[in-house]
Amino acid sequence: MGILYSEPICHAAYENDFEEIYKALRESNDVNVQDAKYGDTAIIAACRGGNNEMIEFLLTKNADVNFRNKKGRTCLHYAVRKKFSFLDYLLIVILMPILLLGYIIMESKKKQHESLIRLLLEAGANVNAVDNKGNTALHYACGMKNLRTASILLRANADSSIVNLNKETPLDIATRLKFFKLVGILRKKS
Q1: Cα–Cα separations (whole angstroms), residue 188 to 70, 127, 165, 182
Q2: CB atoms within 10 A of CB 139
Q3: Where does the chain cross the membrane (predicted)?
Q4: Looking at residue 100, what is its pLDDT?
Q5: Diameter of the chain by CA atoms?
Q6: In this predicted model, what pLDDT tens digit does every residue of 53-88 receive, in sequence order?
């Protein structure tokens, strides 16, 4: 079980339930309503759930990609922080020996994740938005040692010099985690 939202539109977006989304939009027509508990909007909830099709739909309904929840996070923060689900890992492990099918599934999931981040950036997501801890999406990408995501963010002009509340830049995080490939890229960008 995941997150339980008080706003029906947020819950429907998180659960990828298009029938409920249509119903919620007929009742309210406000795609940017915020949940009382978390402050999430439907698009943030969809990003937390990793629901790419739902996110694309919400963007057609003018969902605001720069709304912030109570943690100060935007949908881009959650898209970058999204990890494989337990079921994804299970499928990858089980299918890895069978013609590298697990690897193909893993690469497919990564590409979906990257296309989501690009979609949000193209929709106007602020690549340098900071949350309540002072972290940008680039801080999270470096903390997760995700070179592909960090590269996408840097191509979108992510500022690698932003210092979070722990007094760390994305470069500091990559250095601390000994992620030397990204350290080199970040040094070139600075």
Answers
A1: 34, 19, 24, 10
A2: 29
A3: 86-106
A4: 63
A5: 51
A6: 999 999 999 999 999 999 999 999 999 987 655 555
